[in-house]
Please model this.
Amino acid sequence: MGEKNIISSEFYDRQVTEVARGLLGKRLVRMIDGVRVSGIISETEAYDGMEDLACHARVGKTKRNAVMFGVAGYAYVYFTYGMHWCLNIVTGAMDYPAAVLIRAILPQEGLEIIEMSRGKALRKNWTNGPAKLTQALQINHLQNGLNITRLDGNLWIEDAWDINDNQVKSGSRIGIENTPEPWRSKPWRFWFEDLEFAL
Model:
């Protein structure tokens, strides 16, 4: 795959829910020791600025979330629950902190590396969660602040499948039960379920 297949920064420089929907069907690629490890993005969540009380930016700019306030098309990777990494893609205008959490992918390439990285997990559970996919693709703090619109960073997103609107579902975001309304119920999680795409 050449650089022409990589999603450009213009794609990410949009409203975060549009990007979250648009990322469904794209291919997340990680280069590990010269090997392509990839999967089709099948679930995302949008987090939209300081007013969104489920968003890390609700507390203002900090050392942890500073990447969110930067340029669209950069990786925001954070540590959570003292044990897991999560991958987000920064969207929208500079200084407006919004990002898409990549929640799940369907593994395509580098399956041996994914299997090794996930230990004894069953294949159906390799990458069906945000912490699982970062473990599978060996994504951690080293990728935080990485420009994912370039080949030289060993992490990028490519064009792949076209997901029709009738295949897309949306609902409330996961793991934010203590967040006040209306933010707790915003339908800003997007995913597709179709037997055609099953592992």
Observations:
- DSSP finds four helices and eight strands in the chain.
- Strands lie at 27-32, 35-48, 75-80, 84-90, 98-109, 155-158, 168-171, 189-192.
- The chain has a mean pLDDT of 93.
- The radius of gyration is 16 Å.
